[in-house]
Each structure stands twice: as structure tokens, then as C-alpha cells.
Amino acid sequence: MEPTAAAQLPVVDHRVTGRGASGGPAPLPGPAPLPSPRGRRGAAQQSRAPARCGPSQGRRAPCPDRALSPPPFTRAGAPKPRETSTSEQELKDMLRELVIYVIFLIDLCILAFGMVSIDMYHLNTVMSHLFMEPTEGEDGFGSIRTKADFWKFVEGPLLDGLYWDKWYNNTTLTLQNYSHIYYENLLLGVAQVRQVKVRNNTCSIYPYFHSFLDDCYSEYHYQAEDRSDDALRNESEWKYTPATSLSPWYLGTMGLYGSGGYLFTLPKSKQESMEKLASLKQNNWLTRGTRVVFIDFSTYNANLNLFCIVKLVVEFPATGGAFTSIHIYSVKLLRYITRYDYFLASCEIIFCLFIITFIIQEAIKIVKLKREYFRSGWSWLDLMLLMVSILAITFNIYSTVEVSLLMEELLSDANVYPDFYFLTFWQVLYNNMIAVNIFFAWIKVLKYVRFNKTMEQLSSTLSRCAKDIIGFAIMFFIVFFAYAQFGYLVFGSQVEEFSTFQKCIFTQFRIVLGDFDFEHTEAANRILGPIYFITFVFFVFFVLLNMFLAIINDTYSEVKADYEVMPSHKLPIRDLFRHSCDTVLTKLKMKKPEEDTQPAAEKSER
């Protein structure tokens, strides 16, 4: 006679509880130790299999194995105590880290926004208007097209903008040895003018033209730079001055220029400056080999504690003509003067302490997890944030030390040019590092909100469609770069937006966003211009971009459908916040403690 099902069942340890909403785990014989979570999941999957209960059992008829197992839920809709405790503890740890990180983020934002102000923009604007938009009857800096225009500018608007020796009613100012631009910005030292030249015969002339051309000056590159001195003149403007080791190079429109060259400084007097410029013009200081001229000067506004470093650049390419550009940097080199500055200094110290703490935490994680640590994208983001923070701290310390060492030296002689451009370069680099740092810091906030259902669906959508997006990106950029090369070759010599391959790429992105100039494209080529424009808009805008949106939309629909049928064991964040707030208010005696209405049976099970 077959033994009954009840007689075949072994003794079950009731400490093992199932997972999921549909059934408990398979019973384990004997007083076995508590299985791992992975084992419990496997047991739960076996308990949900219909073969365990037999084909004749319905929904209400309990399975014999389940009859001896504790119920998976303590009450309707409530997860198991152990699952709730684990999820709640994990969520509490995450919220604790989030609170600490928010404090760090607030400190970083104070530092970032404490470095800039609207006054910097206003100072840059008025300085730009002074030289780009001079008084009526004079041409500004942007109107320079030839070497003759350059001399006209430096003898007129440049000297008028640098030397403010009279008040608006033509009364002479008391400080005659110093110029105050706009009556508020002290001109530090004197202005400096520097040119970079190339040697003659630095390019090849076709044999047919040897009888017509004797001289040939190539485009600027380091090997072709002219470093010879004029033996008949001893002034500095006729002698080559080599670059210092720490001076940064300048990346212009036509090339990358070194920091050496032929230079001179303007005297303190406006009349003497006019005489010197007239002499240089008469003796042909600018030659056919001149490729770029730099005009540098610095000012200090005591009202705002801001240094303004101005660089006017005129490039004379091998094609002839001239191209101008102006660079104005308003920086705060003297950083610790007011009480707010010392408050920012305390925030900098707190920032350094945070970075040291984060470094220790990440080092502990690397030692504990080893290779597993580098498999997480959030770990790489943490490392990137730490690296950028360390660079920002290094730049800040270096800039502060250099300013304290060089400030007195630069201002010791009022008749020389104080080169604040070097200090400004490092200060701007520090500001850029802080900007990159705060960008990664805000991105990291997404790590702490992944318990939110919407954010979890978003991250799941991006991770699930990553392979499809990579495949689409390959196809997209093949078509995109094909059109970019087509536009560069067809329109590059006539349309500015297609004059370089890099500009072609940005121009096509602007076309995708709806910003385009069809008239110039059509004028450059009346046949290929419209064909290029129509086919690009059709294939890239209407076809490829809609394919991209379809990939993300379909994946998001799949993820959303999966989350609707997937049981969730995570405690909602709002419930934890509500519970934490109630606990704090109860401890502060601002709220009465809630009565425990939980059944005694449930307490015994917990």
C-alpha cells in the first residue's frame, strides 16, 4: 500500500520563511541552518512550481508542503519582517549617505558661486565696449583689416582708452602718473605690444614664378619663426625676446603662437607713447613676415577687488588681411580680504576635509571589493569626482602661493609691464576645474535617488537599450560624417559655417535643431546646395532621429510593463521619511506616540 503524503513528509524547521507573494519555500529536512538569500530564492522558486502541488489541487486547496511552512505574509499586502528589515536598513544607510553628500554639495556650490559674480561680466563688457565701440568718427578694434588700419587704431582709440588723464569737464586729474580707465580701474604698470614673425624664404615657389617673386613668407609654425636681431638698432622692439619657460602659448584663429617675439612697452605719458608709435610706424616695425601682434595690459578695480587682464590680438595670415580677437578676464586674485572671503576660506577647508574622507572611504571599498569595485559605473563616477577635486585643490593652492609671491614683484616698478596673464591662466584653470567638479557632483545625486520608482525605471531603460543605442549611433555617425565631408568639400571655400570640418559638424547639429542658413548654402552651389539640405533633413532628421526616439520609447514601454507585474519588496521612501519624522517629533515631545495596534500574533512572529 502506498504511504500517504503526510507520512512521507520529513520534519521541517519553521525558521525558514519563503519569499514572494505566491508561496513559501520547499521544506528542508532536519534542523538545517538558515539558508543564504540565494538559497531562499531558489527554494521560493521551487515552491511556486505547480508540480509540487499536483494537478488536482486548486487555488484554495493548500499544498501539503506549504501547509507545514509558515505563511509568506504576516498580513495582507505586507512583506515579511526580514525582507522589510533588510530593505529598510539599506534605505536608511542610503539616506544617511545622501544627507552627508547634500552637505558636501552645498559646500561645493558655495565655493563655485563665490568665485564669480555679475560684476565680472559688467567689467568685461565695459572694457570690450571701450575698444570695440569707440567714439564717433573712429574705427574700433574689430574694424582692422590691414596693417594700415592697425596703426590707425593704436595711435587713436588704443591710446584714448589707455590714458584717462582728464575728467569729463577737461580738468586735469590729480594722479597724473597713473591712468584710471573709466575713472575706476587703475592701469597697472604700462601696456605691452608684442609681435611674432616668420623668416623669409620659408615656403617653396614654383619655378615658373621665380622671375616674378623674390620673397616668400609661410604660415606661422615654430620652425619658421624669425628670431634674428636687427644689428643696426639696440632697442628691445628690434631684438628678439625669448619666451619664459612658464609662459603659456596662445591658440589663435590661424595657428598656435609662442610667447616670445619682438616687444616694447608704452611709456606712462600719452604724448611719449604717440611719439614712440609714430617712430615704429615710420621704421616699418611691422613687416610682411608679421603673423600676429598682441597688445596686453592689466587693470585693478579696488571697488570690486577685481583684476581685469585684457589681450587684444591681431593676426596677419599668409593670405593677407587681418583678423582680430579680444580676450578679457576678470579674476579675483586677492581672495581673502572681506568677511565673506574668509567664510569662503572656511568652506574650502571643509571641502578638503570632505575629499579626504571620501578618499578613505573609496580606498576601503577598493580593498574590500577589489575587482568588483571597478565593475560599477557609480564607482568610476566617484573616482572621477575625487580626481577632479584633487586637481582643483592643487590649482587653488598653486595659484594662491604664486599670487602671494609675485604680486609685490609685479607691482614694484610702475614703468614695466606686469604679466598677470600667467596668474590669470591658473586662476581660470582652477575655475574650470570647479565647474567640471560641480557637474559630476550633481550627476552623482542620481546614485542616491535610485530607490525612486521613476528613477529606477529610467536607469533600467537606459541600461536595457544601451546595445541598441550603440548600434544606432554607429549608423547615425556614418551618415552624419558623410554629409559633413560632403558639405566641407562643396561649400568650404565659400560659406563660413563650412570653412573647416569641425565647423561642418557643428553646423549640421544646428540644422538638426532648426538653426540653418539655406540662402548661403544655395548661393554657394545652386544644384548641390538644395540636394544636400533636403536629403540631410530627410534622412537625419525625419528618419534617424525618429528611429532613436522609437528605440527609447519601446524600451521604456517594456520596462514599465515589467515593473507593473513585478512584485516590489522595497519600502517606499516616503514611508521611511514619515516614520523618521514621526520618531523625531515624538522624541521632541511635539507629537504623541502612536498606539501599537499590531496584533499579538504578528509581534510573536517578528
From TrEMBL:
- Main subcellular localization, coarse class? membrane
Occurrences of domain Polycystin cation channel PKD1/PKD2 (ranges): 335-559
User: Mind telling me which Gene3D superfamilies this protein's record contains?
Assistant: 1.10.287.70
Identify this protein by name: Polycystin 2 like 2, transient receptor potential cation channel
GO annotations of cellular component type: cilium; plasma membrane
Q: Which gene encodes it?
A: PKD2L2
Q: How does it sit in the membrane?
A: Multi-pass membrane protein
What domain of life does the UniProt record list for this protein's source? Eukaryota
